[in-house]
Amino acid sequence: MADLQPVRVTVAFPTIGRWSLLRQALQSILRNPRRDVRVVVVDNASGDETRTEISKLLKEDARLRYVRYEERVHPHANWNRCIEAAGGADYLAIFHDDDLYEPEILDRQIEFLDRHPSVGFVGTGYWIIDERGEVRGSSSARRVGGVIPGKAFIRDLMRRAGSFITCPSVMYRKIALEPIGFDAGVDPRGGDYLTWLKMAERWDVGYIPTPLMRYRRHARQGSASAGLGSGTVAVFRNLSRYASSVAENRPERRAEAEAWIRAVRRRCLARLLSYGLEDCGDSPAERVRFVGQVSEICPVGGGVVAKVGLLIGRPLKRWGLFRIAMNLLRREGGADRSAPERSAV
Question: Please, which residues bridge with residue 69 across strands?
Answer without folding.
Answer: 44
